[in-house]
UniProtKB/TrEMBL annotation:
It comes from the Eukaryota. Residues 1-20 are annotated as: Disordered. InterPro entries: SKP1/BTB/POZ_sf. SUPFAM superfamilies: POZ domain. This is BTB domain-containing protein.
Length: 227
């Protein structure tokens, strides 16, 4: 978060002002990465967040710049006011992901739980992104549900964006504890023409280091059980 006086390139000197957040009694101006201005109330920021407290000297004439775009901030700021909050149900996943990250970054508590619920609901369609979100922000129950959908992917693709503390346990699970037939085939959800693999895997997070252990029972759907 940075503060600047309203001088600079022409595109930033004549920015668009948010229609939703343009109250005349606002006492601080926040600018999105695309130049849009949001005039909001310091009291609301301090009451609902821990990471978005403006500088003590900030005034309406000074501009606090954030790295998020206007679509993200428009949704995020709605959680900071005493009105019906957006339920995010019809928000495209890319925007939902940005709002969820911003809510965690600025610790906007009214938004964090709603984003967590909506991200969890997107597991079947975006398992990679949801698992990484859960890893970054400490939601082990979401990690547990996402991991079986991601484990069949190549190791490099998965760990490239993974928080460092999870790389070693993830490598261990994929290399040593996951059955070969699951490791070498894509995860099927039953909609593919290929015979689906039905994993019955229990993923548990143990201790402060989030060490993964697994219990596997791998059987092809419709096939006979092996001894």
């Amino acid at each position: 978060m940075s503060t600047r006086n309203p001088t600079g390139p022409p595109a930033l000197n004549n920015p668009r002002v948010s229609e939703r957040f343009s109250d005349t009694d606002a006492d601080i101006t926040i600018q999105a990465s695309d130049g849009t201005l949001f005039r909001v109330h310091t009291m609301n920021l301090r009451a609902t967040t821990e990471g978005l407290s403006p500088p003590p000297c900030a005034t309406l004439d000074q501009v606090v710049q954030l790295t998020e775009d206007s679509a993200t901030l428009d949704l995020l700021f709605q959680f900071m006011y005493p009105s019906r909050h957006p339920d995010l149900e019809d928000v495209h996943f890319n925007l939902l992901e940005h709002v969820a990250e911003a809510a965690e970054k600025y610790q906007v508590y009214p938004a964090m739980n709603m984003c967590k619920v909506r991200m969890k609901n997107q597991l079947s369609q975006y398992p990679d992104a949801v698992m990484l979100y859960a890893m970054r922000h400490g939601y082990p129950e979401i990690m547990d549900k996402a991991a079986p959908r991601v484990i069949a992917q190549t190791l490099y693709k998965t760990v490239a964006k993974m928080p460092p503390r999870y790389i070693v346990p993830w490598h261990h699970i994929k290399t040593y504890e996951t059955p070969i037939e699951f490791r070498d085939q894509r995860f099927h959800d039953g909609t593919s023409a290929a015979p689906p693999i039905r994993p019955n895997i229990e993923w548990r997070i143990l201790g402060s280091q989030h060490e993964w252990t697994t219990v596997q029972d791998m059987r092809p759907t419709g096939g006979a059980e092996s001894d």
